[in-house]
Every structure is written in C-alpha cells, then in structure tokens.
Amino acid sequence: MERFLIEKIEAIFVNAKMKRDFLAKLYCIRQALNAICVDEHRRVWLSNSGRQLLGHLMQNMQQDPTSFYKAYDEMILFFEDEDNLDMAEAELKLRGVPELSFWDIVLDFILLDSFDDLKAPPSAIYSVTKNYWLSQSMKYSTISTVIWSMLKAKRQRLQYPNGFIAHFYNISEAVSPSITLGFLGTDQALGELCHYFKEQVIQLVIDLFNPKRVRYTNLEEMVEDVWVVLQTRTESLLTRLSSEILPA
C-alpha cells in the first residue's frame, strides 16, 4: 500500500524526493490527524463539514441530497459503534488500507482513489457524459442505472454485507452519479465547480506535506497547523459550494 500511496502523492507533487522523508512525514501526518479525530468537537466538525460539502455538491447538480444524507449518517453511526471497528479494519486491509485513520480512509481511500477512478471511467458511463444530444436529466438517470448495476454486483461479493464497504457503496450510489456527471459531463459551470473541489483537496494534501505550512517539530504544534490547513481548505470549499448553488 505504501508504494502505491507514494506513487499517488508523487504524481501530484514532488517535494519529498527521498522515500524515507516521505514516509516519515506520512507517519507524522497520520499521528496529527488521529489526534485531531480524538477531539470530539473537531471530529464532529469534520463529519458535519463532509456532509455539507457533498450535499451542496449534489444540490449544485440539481439533485436531492436526501438519500446521500441518510447513507452518510448511517456510515457515521457505524463508526460510532466500537464493535464495528474490527470488522471495518479487516475489510479495509483486504483492500490495502493499512490503518483506520482519517488519512487512510477519507483522504486516500475515498477522495484520492475517487479522483483516480474518474480518470478512467467505464466506457458505458463516459459515452453518456459526453453525449450532447442527451439532456442532463437523461444523462443522470442513465448513469445512475449503470452505477446501481455495478454496485449491485459488487455487493453480492461482500464478505460483510453490513460492513464499512456496504455503507460506502450506499454513499457512492447516492452521490456518484452527480459527481461523475459534474466531472465528466459537458456542463462547463458544473465542471469548473467539481474541478475546484478536486483542486482544494489536492492542495490540502500538498499543504500537509509542506514544512512551510505544517511544523514538523512536535505533535502539539503539528496538530494545530494541520487543523488550520483542514479548516482553511474546507471552509473555502463550503463557501464556494454554498454560494454558487446553481439555479434550476
């Protein structure tokens, strides 16, 4: 996993030229993010912000986020039950995720992996997004059907039908059609908004590895700097997405 993670980050920027330096920084980032998530106030803030971000993104696509909110809230409840953590850890290790951490699950497994997936979408989805003859509603309906079919097949192979991956698929089913159409579709305004979202996430990752933004001195100082980076990038996204909800 670390080798693939290194390649993924180095594809974004080349600041940590030495693998050892990269892994040392990654270790520190994990520790800082874990410390942040131990703080209930900050953990809830991050959770609520993620909910708002994706909800606003769907609203910009003129889609009702109700099903997403339901799936997202169920995921949060899943993680709040400590009895589920061992199951989630086992599921994620099968997919090469080394730890149950904010970095490994949210930033790497969910966000960065999703951006990678959008670079090479299934041909059935790509052809629909680029079809100028179809209306947005028809594109959305078709993409939703394709994604639903793909996720149905994946659900049937799950080792834990009610585990983390099942909850993740529920969220994906709700939000993926909007995100896919936004990133790959022909609507320029929506495309710009989605790419702004991606740019902010990537810049957040870059900031975390940047010693000019984060003090790699001691855990306490690093936690505060990482928290500032998280707040700054998240609030920038929230402001943009909430203020530019497109008219129907």
Automatic annotation (TrEMBL):
InterPro entries: Miga. Keywords: Membrane, Mitochondrion, Mitochondrion outer membrane, Transmembrane, Transmembrane helix. It comes from the Eukaryota. It is found in: Mitochondrion outer membrane. This is Uncharacterized protein. GO terms for cellular component: mitochondrial outer membrane. GO terms for biological process: mitochondrial fusion. The keyword Magnesium does not apply. Its main location: mitochondrion. Belongs to the mitoguardin family.
